[in-house]
Amino acid sequence: MPKYCDSEVLEHNWFEWIVASAIPILEPYRELGVLWTKIIGKVTDTNNEIIMKHGKPFDDPSHPIRLHCIGLGRGIFVITNNGGVDIVYTDSMQVCNLPYEDLANTFIDVGLFDPINIENSGYWRERPVKESWNDVLQDVYKMCNGIAMRFNMPSEEDRDELASEAALQVIRKLKARKLIYTPGLAPVFNLLTTTIHRCMYSTLSREQRRIRNTKAYAEEIKAQHV
Questions:
Q1: What is the pLDDT of residues 117-176, one digit of tens each?
Q2: Whole-angstrom Cα distance, residue 149 to residue 158?
Q3: How far apart are CA 32 and CA 126, in angstroms?
Q4: CB neighbourhood size of 51 (10 A)
Q5: Where are the domains of the chain?
């Protein structure tokens, strides 16, 4: 099967988008480059057993509870649950509020924060949602265009239209969380390839029905005037 994109890169970007898009309230800190996140949930099978590979579990990007550190001062720590903030506290375990609600009008010195310790504890710095989303979209379009080439379409315009329609359907599924990547289960490339093929076959089937119905209608009108 042809590879239309780097599957590992796609998995990484999709993982990041799932995490970031689930917690929009922290987006201003992503855009500043000061949000660090740790996934504590692990992927499990149908028996609720943790799935392992080479002795290591898979982080579950869809797990509702996440740990965060906002890299300001000595660090502000946040626990989120189902997209909402549960608690905010300092490094001395004092409960506090999210810092700088009006980030656009605040000068922030991030030079004091040293991320080495939290990186060693499994945190990574998040990117803005739009960056990971755009990266995912680019790979989706690449895959749709590549797969459309394998269909015997009448013209290049028809092929481009098929690819665009499939990409649009996949995007809707992603946003609606009807198509979700889970590490350790179906390979992400195979998951998307199968989905894109189904979307394309559905589109072609719908177009064929439209053509048949139009033809039948035209024949009926013609018969009435004979």
A1: 889 999 999 999 999 999 999 999 999 999 999 888 889 998 999 999 999 999 999 999
A2: 11
A3: 10
A4: 15
A5: 22-127, 130-224
Tokens matching residue 102: 């009006």
pTM of the predicted model over 0.85: no
User: For residues 58 and 184, is the Cβ–Cβ distance under 8 A?
Assistant: yes
Contact 74, 112 (CB under 8 A): yes
Q: Using DSSP, state whether 128 is helix, strand or coil.
A: coil
pLDDT in tens, 94-126: 898 887 665 555 555 556 778 888 899 999 999
> What is the rounded distance in angstroms from the CA atom of residue 173 to the CA atom of residue 90?
38
What distance in Å separates the CA atoms of residue 62 and residue 32, rounded to the nearest whole number?
A: 24
Rounded CA separation 117/170 (Å) = 39
